[in-house]
Amino acid sequence: MVHQTEVNTNGKAKTADSHRAEGMVDVAESFTGLAHDAVELAELQAQLLKLDVQAAARNGGMSAALLVVGACLLLGCVPVALLALTEVFIAQYGWSRAGALGAAAAIGLAISAGAGAAAWYRLRRALASLQRSRDELNRNIAWLKSNLKRNKSAGYTSRSISDR
Q1: CA 101 to chain centre
Q2: Residue 160 half-sphere exposure, CB side, CA atoms within 13 Å?
């Protein structure tokens, strides 16, 4: 049974069972190294996400404040101010009540739209800081996939995360 036994340079015979045992050790070591790298990547990804969420919260605070101000302005004092503006149009320019009310409403809508647009712009800028986490996650997943694919055919050799 020549095909089942090999002789090492040290003179000891290797059987098919010893080859399988060595292969199992290599697979276990490969999986352990890969799992360690994957856990390390997950920890780094979580730290990056935490920092990005903190930055988004800092930058998003002004957006929330602008949104609250816009809503309060629209719902609170605007009707009174617009009615007063209507009376000014009637008294100063001799407009009809309907025309003065329409002009006052248009001015109120324009102010509200400006505040809403400013809030939307700032909110989009605040959320853009999460792009860094998303990009890094995509790179980490691609690296992990390439290592898993490579390790199917060749044995896993542990590389540090910085080697990517």
Answers
A1: 46
A2: 2
Question: Do 108 and 74 form a contact (C-beta atoms < 8 A)?
Answer: yes
- Chain length of the chain: 164
* Cα-based torsion angle of the residue sequence 86, 92, 97, 98 in order, rounded to the nearest 10 degrees: -70
Q: By three-state DSSP, how is residue 19 classified?
A: helix
> Per the structure block, which two tokens stand in for 121?
């712009």
Whether this prediction's pTM lies above 0.85 is answered by: no
**Higher pLDDT, residue 98 or 23:** 98
Average pLDDT score, the chain = 78
- Give the other-Cβ count within 10 Å of 143's Cβ: 17
CA 33 to chain centre: 27
Residue 58 and residue 125: Cα distance in Å, rounded?
11
Tens digit of pLDDT for each residue in 5-47?
Answer: 454 555 555 555 555 555 566 777 777 888 888 888 888 888 8
Angle at Cα 132 formed by Cα 129 and Cα 138, nearest 5°?
A: 140
The token pair at 57 is 């919260």
